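Think of the structure tokens as a kind of shorthand, similar to the way a musician reads notation: each symbol stands for something richer, in this case the local conformation of the backbone. In the example below we present two proteins back to back. Begin with the first one, reading the sequence and then the tokens, and try to describe in your own words what changes along the chain.
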Amino acid sequence: MTNRHLTVAGRVALLIRAGLIAGLVITGLSYPFAALAGMGVKAGAEALESMPEQLTELPPAQTTYVYAGDGKTLLTMFYEEHRKHVALKDMSPYVIKAIVASEDSRFYEHHGVDAKGVARAFVANQKAGGVSQGASTLTMQYVRMALRDSARTPQEALEATEQTAARKLREMRLAIEVEQRLSKEEILERYLNAAYYGHRAYGIFAASQIFFSKAPRDLGLTEAALIAGLVKAPSAYDPATKNQKAALDRRNYVIDQMLKSNAITAEQATSAKKSKIKLKLSTPPNGCISVAPKHNDWGFFCDYFTSWWREQPAFGRTPLEREENLRRGGYRVVTSIDPKIQRYAMQHVLEKERKTSAIAHGQVVVQPGTGRVLSMAVNRTYSLDQEKNGRHSDWRQDDDVKGNYPNTVNPLLGGGDMAGYQAGSTFKIFTMLAALEEGLPLSTSFYAPQRFVSRYITAPGPATCGIYWCPKNSSKSMTGNQNMWTGFGKSVNTYFVQLEQRIGSEKAVRMAERLGLRWRTDIDRKLATKEHASGWGAFTLGVSDATPVEMANVFATLAAEGEFCEPLPVLSIRNPDGSNALYQDRLIAEPRCHQEIKANVARAATDAARCVTGYGSARGGCGGWGTSSMVYGTIGRPIAGKSGTTDGNKTAWFSGYTPQLAASAFVADPDNPEHLVGSGRSTMSKYTVAQTLRDALKGKPREDFKPPADKYVW
């Protein structure tokens, strides 16, 4: 029987009998193999047999790369240990030669344990009276790394690295097992991708990036030698420190070892040792806070993406586990953010409200039929540094309390745990959709007085009279008979309260839920319950909070003729091996859509929403004017939408859509909901949406809306 066919324990025992393993050096103490714990060769072999027979290797943590929608522009990265697997063929030959020469010159001769190396180390350490040489082969070092990276508990991690005889024995046993299972090239590739080089760089790819800003295949002799020298003691030989002498000495030692092993010529070695250390340091981005300054406005989208990721069961059982997966999973994510649309959106947001304003102005653009979020723009800088922020706009706060402008990481546009902003009359869309679904046509008419005494008991809303809720219109010119076209186009409060009473306010509330709204405040959650929703008359006037992402997606559903798609911040997600990430046999990045409302219901609502923008209805009269007639004049193509302001102009919204794109913009003070934005900002969101959609659709074909069937008209 050849040595190749012996068991792992048998192989080590054979080495012991042959006298090739003279001792084991651990923390300055030598342990003769045959005398371990007083054991003979037979007992030692039995002890080895009781140890794990095969190395359990879990995939090491890898960096997740997140790109913009073009698939090329890096948005950011997520990692705990910066690492990306690289094939051996994609590494510079100098890297391989340097690591073998410096760490294990007999790598290609031994079978996992270098008996001569152990004997040599034993003798050297005996003479030195301490540890002057180690005896770990590259394979044994790889085993240690694999045990460390596969540790499930702190105790397992300690056992993988602690300086004990038992650990060394286990490494030897498993190293021989690994050599029986893997080729030398496979071991080298795994080693180079697992080693730690300092500066949070795990693996040769990260080290090449961090120290030289280049790929592993492009490393020259001196660069490869310097990196190879780091694995022994990354901190001690750190070349990024002011004093590079230790790093230079270590690099030159590696070069000498390469010459000694005939990996390079004497001329190469002499020339290389004369050269100075030349670094090109880089700090890879990590997380949303590291989005490049050039694209800082993408930080809010990045934050929304991470909130979405934490909600996906495909990535773990809990939000914490999912976030850990993001930082360790090595995914390649192409997000849905469109750099061109984002640029237009930021331009039109900032030209109306600068970042230094306490008033926030933001906008979200969504693609109908997919739910993909194409843009998230707001007049803020995505940053944790609030030192130079303005004073908080709520006068009740202490003087030293900072406001969230110009710097913040609060999710002002959606995601996270922010409640959002009162959306005003944009909520009339839910009442109209519920009414159309109940069989009431667009021509449904009510007399709308200036003030209306509703059947609802006093509830949160613009006005009260006695025990009943008594809303009123913003203009006396709205008094008279109104239908859905004119009532929606002119935003007639007293018409919509009557329409809501006709169908029951609970149906409007449930419609909002069906189209993606979540109740984020205690009062909203309470009023949305079954026992309270039927009395929530003020709901139709938008007293509840909503986010721009939610509202943009509501109107995207209408643009898609009733097909609701969950808001989605990704185009594709690939695993480290290049395969598409799946969950229950479905692409995780695939749009999640279903027909939530009938196409003709959506078409009818759109026909009324055309009256708002000045585009005009296809099936009925708009009554001569709409609240946002400048929108069609600005965009110059078919568009529908709805504006919304709250009592006293605390917020001002506009949501608009074409068949290709939907957008929602708001103006509000996120720090102080009672801070009035002022009547001068009432048209701001309308122009922002119209101008952004105009620019985003430039050069795109003109598409029109389909009119509704007669059943939904008369």
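Once you have a description of the first chain, move to the second and do the same.
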Amino acid sequence: MAVEMTTRLDRVLGARTAKAMGESLGLHTVRDLLRHYPHRYAKRGEMTRLDDLQVGDRVTVLAQVRSVDSRPMRQRRGTLTEVTVGDGAGTMKLVFFNHRYTRLVPGAWGLFAGTVSEYRSRLQFAHPDCHLMTGDDEDVDWARALIPIYPATKEVSSWVIQRSVRLLLDASGGFGFVEDPLPEELRARHGLPSLAAALLDIHRPTSDDDVEHAAHRLRWDEALTLQLTLAARRRAASLEPGVARPRRAGGLLDAVDAALPFALTDGQCAVGEELAVELAREQPMHRLLQGEVGAGKTVVALRAMAQVVDAGGQAALLAPTEVLAAQHARSISAMLGPLGRAGELDGDPAGTRVVLLTGSQKTAARREGRAAVADGSAGIVIGTHALLQAGVDFSDLGLVVVDEQHRFGVEQRDALRAKGNRPPHVLVMTATPIPRTVAMTVYGDLETSTLRQLPGGRGGVASSVVPVRDKPAWLDRAWERLREEVAAGRQAYVVCPRIGEDAATEEEPDDADGVPAEEGSGRRPPLAVLDVADELRAGPLAGLRVEVLHGRMTPEDKEARMRAFAAGEVDVLVATTVVEVGVDVPNATVMVVMDADRFGVSQLHQLRGRVARGKHQGLCLLVSEAPTTSATGQRLAAVAGTSDGFELARLDLETRREGDVLGAAQSGRRSGIKLLSLLEDEQLIAEARAEATALLGTDRGLADFPGLAMEVAALATDERAEYLEKA
């Protein structure tokens, strides 16, 4: 039969196997199957390292039967069979109830797949799937040097996938039907084999070199397809007709610059000039502004907003939480002074109005704010998701600023953009430093600016790990140190992973990365704000003014608590990660993070950035029960050892699954990203980005490369593409 990449699997494999593959692995076509690559290769003499196995993992091991022991069960009828298998690296037990594998005898080789369980402190498989190697024709791959082990499920085992690929190979006469989507000149330039050869070598390799060369070519497919998709978005955005918002002398921007009580850093000036030039163009700006915690991104954004207001437009700032939105409104209003109160008795007529819109506002305040937005008197509009709601209509939206982009999906960014009469300029900001490869992929549709330089006069933050299991006395010293700072007239945060009281609510809505205890894991629940606050009031911090802040408080109470803390009426604020971003209290110099091991690297860096925002030296104490020699203990030590957010971002990428960085987990999904590594393939991704830009820069674009256009279309329709944008 004629086979093509688009041929449905039921025509090649039969309805039953095709249905199982479609339902459990999302494989529906020949292309899907050929792009479902082995995740490792088994060799005779090697076994999956038993010390790497974890209870609950579903794995496939290649091993030889060492012994078989059958005996009647005591509690019920039938036979219990215990099989010990091994292959050099160790042994493990397979347990069967009333097993019927007559060929399961000492000396037999096979593939065994199951879910790892534990019995009497020993790992085992209970009733695993078995595929015994007999040397028959159907097991011809057994004689090969490398046996592919595929990502599999209980319904579709690795050897079923292996047999299906072999059947497809036989039916097609050797993948001769595969057309190469990459231009021949590009392949020659980068020394890449054909796609047919790469697929053959990835599925049926004869050596490790075969695998490496094939994987390199297939990573190119993934990188180029992804970069073409993002480059197409950049190209489409550049062709949108926008409105130029040029700088005007003697306007609000000049007044803002004159009113600033500090000098801008060189970095702020450089990025500000970059934004000013792009805002003056008709093509809408699409720019990512990333910067170290405390580098002054808000001031840069305010200057851009002022330029747009001077040009007759409005600017909207979208914040992820009401606490952060309210703080932005306070700080921007304070920086503008009378210039932000146009129309009020003490306002400057040459200025504009700053309006805050949140979901919890009273009806009258919300109605008044919406009216000011609609008639254009509010030049700067700050809010949460409430800005996206129907009924919020702008007179002339010229600039959208999205703060902490990682808290939003791309569709929310687009929903706000759609409120402009013409496509507005877009500035996306994040204080979570982004490795270059992530910026080229996840944020590949945005140009990137970076702020590394911190404003002068900052005290800096010293960080230390408090390993309470190894050195319990250190925690007592931590509380003493906090009391010393308060006695000197300064303030402190204590951060906990959850709120407390209601066990069903482990995390508050504002939290992004806190990790609750797994049910049945034996690990104690994470420490809670309400419990810790009570213990501190009654114990080591008795006599100090200790208050709490968390996401279940009403917006009014949260706002009042933050105002009290900012005014110095609270000594210690015990909070969840609601204080993670944007909170700015210069007098706060100490942060104690409880259960620090339950937070991500970038999140700890964000939290640490809340202290030492004034002239005094800051202190961040990471409290953890993790042993100092464990991987978690070493990760915390690395966080304490550097204040370079970009170095920590790379560490974060090393210690997290890359699927978490890119979006959804890859298991069980059709995915355009299977082999590409953001950490290891930086140079390849950069080269693919350049090639993608060149391909789309020609008059015909991808018109001469239909195979490549099909790959781009496949990624665009892949449900994973939306996750890629949201990461």
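Compare your description with these statements about the second chain. The longest helix spans residues 208-239.
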